[in-house]
Specification:
The structure is a single chain. The chain contains 20 helices and 13 strands. By secondary structure, the protein is an alpha/beta fold. It has a domain of 84 residues: Arginyl tRNA synthetase N-terminal domain (Gyrase A, domain 2), CATH 3.30.1360.70. The strands form four sheets. A four-stranded antiparallel β-sheet has the order 1-2-4-3. It has a four-stranded parallel β-sheet with strand order 6-5-10-11, with helices on both faces. A three-stranded antiparallel β-sheet has the order 7-8-9. A hairpin with a 3-residue loop joins strand 3 and strand 4. Helix 6 crosses helix 8 and helix 13 packs across helix 14. The protein is globular, with a radius of gyration of 28 Å. The structure holds arginine. The site of arginine has 10 residues, from helix 11.
């Protein structure tokens, strides 16, 4: 249990002892150092309900709390906050070399993370970047905390547009490179479809052939999907995400389950017919005239929809895979879709009672002008081109900074910095807001950026190179002699708590802010506290703190999917 949770438990008991058992103490990191290390909120609300004076109640709680082993000082502040200053021994113990960096959760959950999920008819574009990056960080963090993570890449590989693509593929299959550029291929196929009615007819027949399982159509379709997926995988590898082909669970994988979804809905009395289509009406969602709104699950021609597939996916995940929790990462435009799917799943019994279904939406990437992020020609920017540009810009910066560097080193650094900068820029913003994609900001070596953190890490490593030692060789203990050392210990001790927070609320920017704060606290420590010139015991203590900072930064970045160079 992290210190914050321990404090919460202790104060919960103290609230009860002070006569307010139903009130919940909210323990939060203090906003300023002069407020101590943590602040306990909740006294004022409890006092209001109990009809007592907040400061009196706070006094009673302080008298009742059993926390001598954790706490050095408790103070009442303002109208009734309790400021907590931890004992130095607690801080030292939690950052000692033998203290685990991450402690697995006492209760390990099975968590499905649904992320990335591009549509295979087209090439991955910037619209898929956020889901891929955020989802991958969440999957890594949950895994680090001991949960069993099942990645599900719910790629779109089914639907009418494949009829058009396959028909066009058949026409052009004499060219061996026709699928080298899926985007271009899609555009040409679409142009052909719009211009030629006979082609459009053949495309529609191809859809029918595909859906009825015609072997030739299926073989063509598989070829297309295989190539498109390999384009995606190349991007995943380049981005350094953990997704593999084994995580692909495409829309088409649910095809056989769809008739059963419809008959189950009918059996539960949830299905109604409306204009020939099969719908589920939900009182919670109303059309403009106040009548309940229908979610179509089968079209009048018998075809199934995105929604039908998602119902089958909920059942697969919570019942077959036995997930305790399913996290969906898509942009906010799909919020209503998921809210409806979750509701229908509950009613129809497609989701296990205890399973938690969460849609965690995100905002859009905007250009510097505040409008949707587009290429100069106005089209969507391809991910590969975006990453090329990131690496090229990083290479230029690195070359300016250190022209002596060997070419091979320069290239590997440029890759880590460029890709890292793009990922971090996304992860460090509150996910639910739109964010402005700004090359200068994300590639800056100052501020809350990947290059700043990567550089901070290499600076610590260079201290060890100058000391001509490694942490493993150090014999001694950490001591706290000055405020900057204490501040660093406190920041280091909070790593676990921050990871748990992100695992809970799926906001990776908390981890970014934490790492940025840690690096800043370290820089203040480093400016105020000499290391190599000190006597052995002080030097060892400070080196141990430096090492702990380095491994925390490295681990934190790794959990965000960002590499750290050893020097730069
Ligand atoms: N393919 C969809 C899209 O590009 C995202 C799929 C998200 N996951 C899901 N289970 N619906 O919008």
């Amino acid at each position: 249990m992290n210190v914050r949770q321990q404090l919460t438990e202790r104060f919960q008991a103290a609230f009860a002892a002070a006569g307010v058992p139903d009130a919940a103490p909210l323990v939060q990191p203090a906003g300023k150092p002069e407020f101590g290390d943590y602040q306990v909120n909740g006294v004022m609300a409890a006092a209001k309900r109990a009809g007592s004076k907040p400061r009196d109640l706070a006094q009673q709680i302080i008298a009742a709390v059993d926390a001598q082993d954790l706490v050095e000082k408790l103070e009442i502040a303002g109208p009734g906050f309790i400021n907590v200053t931890l004992a130095n021994s607690v801080l030292i113990e939690s950052v000692a070399p033998d203290a685990a960096l991450i402690t697995p959760a006492s209760h390990s959950e099975t968590v499905v993370v649904d992320y990335s999920a591009p549509n295979l008819a087209k090439e991955m574009h910037v619209g898929h970047l956020r889901s891929t990056i955020i989802g991958d960080a969440i999957a890594r963090i949950l895994e680090a905390l001991g949960h069993r993570v099942i990645r599900q890449n719910h790629v779109g590989d089914w639907g009418t547009q494949f009829g058009m693509l396959l028909t066009y593929l058949a026409e052009t299959s004499d060219r061996s490179d026709e699928l080298a550029d899926i985007e271009e291929f899609y555009r040409s196929a679409k142009a052909r479809f719009d211009a030629d009615a006979q082609f459009a007819d053949r495309a529609r027949q191809a859809v029918v052939a595909l859906q009825s399982g015609d072997p030739a159509a299926l073989a063509q379709w598989q070829k297309f999907i295989r190539i498109s997926l390999s384009h995606c995988q190349a991007i995943y590898d380049r981005l350094g995400t953990t997704l593999t082909m084994a995580d692909v669970m495409a829309e088409s994988a649910y095809n056989d389950a769809l008739p059963g979804i419809i008959s189950d809905l009918a059996e539960k009395g949830l299905l109604s017919e409306s204009e020939g289509a099969q719908c589920v009406f939900l009182d919670e969602y109303q059309a403009k005239d106040g009548s309940p709104m229908g979610v179509i699950v089968q079209k009048s021609d018998g075809g199934y929809l995105y929604s039908t597939t998602d119902l089958a996916a909920v059942r697969h995940r919570t019942i077959t895979l036995n997930a305790d929790r399913v996290i969906y990462l898509t942009d906010a435009r799909q919020s209503q879709h998921f809210a409806q799917i979750f509701l229908i799943s509950r009613r129809a019994g497609f989701s296990r009672e205890a399973a938690v279904l969460e849609h965690q939406p995100f905002g859009n990437m905007l250009g510097k002008d505040g409008r949707p992020f587009k290429s100069r020609e106005g089209g969507l920017i391809k991910l590969n081109e975006l990453l090329d540009e990131a690496v090229a810009k990083a290479l230029k910066l690195i070359t300016e900074k250190d022209p002596e560097l060997q070419a091979s080193q320069r290239e590997s650094l440029a890759r880590m910095v460029g890709i890292g900068a793009v990922k971090y820029a996304d992860l460090s913003k509150n996910r639910t807001s739109n964010y402005i994609f700004d090359w200068d900001q994300m590639l800056s070596f100052e501020g809350n950026t990947a290059p700043y953190l990567q550089y901070a890490y290499t600076r610590i490593r260079s201290i060890f190179r100058r000391a001509n030692t490694t942490a493993a060789e150090l014999e001694g203990v950490i001591t706290i002699q000055t405020p900057p050392e204490r501040a660093l210990c406190l920041s280091l001790s909070r790593f676990q708590e921050v990871l748990e927070q992100v695992a809970g609320d799926v906001y990776p920017h908390h981890l970014c802010s934490y790492l940025y704060d840690l690096a800043s606290v370290f820089m203040r420590f480093y400016e105020a506290c000499p290391i190599l010139s000190e006597a052995d015991d002080v030097k060892t203590s400070r080196l141990l703190l430096a090492d702990r900072t380095a491994i925390t930064l490295k681990k934190g970045l790794e959990l965000l999917g960002i590499e750290t160079p050893e020097r730069m």
